[in-house]
Amino acid sequence: MSLPYPTAYQIEEMFANRDVPSIFHTYLADPIDVTVVGQDFTVAGHYKSMQAFHDAIYARVSKALKVETIRVEIRRVIGGGESAWASVESLCTATSKYEKPYYLEFVDLVRFNSKGKIAQMKEFLDSGQRRLSALAYIELRSSSTVVKIDLSYIEKSFFFSCLAMLSQIDWGVL
Asked: What is the pLDDT of residues 10-27, one digit of tens each?
């Protein structure tokens, strides 16, 4: 008997391809409903189409990071199979275009539609993981001067970890 939704193993495979948009987008429903949570992130917002999601996330990432260095490690998948809902805990590492290390932990809460595509995704980003070090510098430009401000001093702050509370979440309200 086949399960109505992707299994935890299949979901892990899907998200392991997250760094390759041409592959990851094949797992997304269109339209998709994506909410990115994180006060310190310029990509935070609510996206109602695959194109808006792509432009907000992948287009910006490719400007800040060396795409060939991006690695996504799936740490844990909870759910899927009998449930339309799943949680995916991931770690992304890369090198910025300024040769600075980039490190980001995040959790995605996803809902699959009846075709096994991701129809809804809510992403919680670790806003304290020195995420600005990937950009390394802000460039302030005037007509003849460029001032670079080093942002790599920003300290690591508390990581939002919701996995321990997953059993207490009312999935129907997300």
From this structure: 999 999 999 888 999 999
